[in-house]
Sequence to fold (539 residues):
Amino acid sequence: MATFKRISAVLLTAALVSSAAIAGCSDGSKETASDSGGKKTSEPVKLKLFMGNSGMAHPEGVNPSDNPYMNFIKEKSGVDLELEVPGYQDFKTKFNLMLSSGSLPDLVHTWYPNEAYQAADQGAFIDLKSYYDKSPIVQKVITPEMMEMAKSASGHYYRIPMRNTNAPQGSGVAVRYDMLVKYNEGKYPETVDQWIELMRKVHAAEPNSIVLSNRVANTDTALGFGGLPIFFWYGALPYQYRVQDGKVISTFQLPEYRAAVETMKMLYDEGILDKEFATNDNVKYGEKKTNKNVMFEYNSADQFIPTGQEKRPQDKDKEWQLAPALKQYPSVLKDPKYAQPYKGFPITDHGIYISSQSKHPDEAWKVIETFASDELHELIFWGKEGEDYTVKDGKKIPVEGKGLSDKSQYYKLHLGFIFGFSDRLESSIAAAEQVMDKGEFARRMEGLKNWETYANNTGLRLGNFVKLSAEAAKKVAESNNFISQATIEAIMGRITMQQFDQKVAEFAKKYGFIYDEYTNYMQEHKDELRKFGVKEVDW
Fold:
């Protein structure tokens, strides 16, 4: 990563104090001389915003910089915004390339805070605290406690984070309930062995179907979604940690992880696990879910908020539901609590930053305030009164097929990266209750309630609070890539399990210091973490 030009602390502080004094007062425009009579006219400042679509891409024909929602943002902020929105699959690569180039746009949205903070500490982004302190608009959405949670290890407030307080809680295994009805009388298996027997039954009946697949999010974390249920049930998700006997260790080093790898290898050898599990991108995985009856995936509860959207014709008979916890766990699992979801952190990794290279930081802040405005919230999550919803007895009632139920409007959700995407909860459930099959709706709501109960029992994750050293933070992606490679090779039989054990030992030597930092942080902040509701500090 290129080293950004460092700015004098004195000059930077002076600049922030000066700009903060007028933050929120600027109309985002600049005065220019007209062609006649020397009169001055107001012309919007032009700023550039790099942002991700968070998996909610613009429909074909929709201009990211020129659509009803961006035009509202431009009009309210008084800023002429030009957007660069990479595809979801390419986002991390293009984000890293942008950072390494040393040439940044005025505003940057990303969900990779570690990389952003590393660049910020080298001068890439400005500290936003002085702006935040003078902004009731942003404070209404992002509390001071949330800003503290988003503070960098170096003590700076580089980002305005995304809140997560309205999200359904928990995560776990989602399953094709219609296939459970077809092959298991609608009953959820209660053990891993029972799930495997069901997979074998489906595979025998539908040899062309792909019961278990995987989605490669990026090169660092190659195991995701369909590739994670087995690991979840063994209490050893990839790229995670476990607090055990007062010490933090990588799940990669656990006997449970090894057992999960062996189980995945067995399913791969039997043809149940997708032969292309290590190479599926988002598009391929989606196609297989649609056309090949992929039966399971691990995901978070907020991805299963019921909606009023009509199912695609090819998905009409598919019903995804949230599986309850197992009744009995594998004997290798040290404690069932390790196979339960966590409660959601009040903020997510998403955030928006202002570049130190921007010549118009005040106007950039005005854009951030617009992203946090009540008007945009209404537009994103409910739409327009009289067009997308009506009001009766003080209650908003969605118009069927409008608002977020209209697939052509759904992309606007990715603009909610300050409010939190799950702020759609109320409007989506209201719309779903109107049009969704009553049995399916009831099952979904029951699943969401179950997962929330599990998550509340587990509490918050230690990992949300730990602040790694710069050296450790730089090694996280590399260590994840090491885990991906060793796991995939073992599942595919390219290395033996004895060789896999050697990889685990090598991992401990190379990257064990990362988890030592976790342990040290936990020990030094135990009382504080307990107050936040981090129960695992006492595991």
User: Anything to note?
Assistant: Residues 1-40 have pLDDT under 50 and may be disordered.
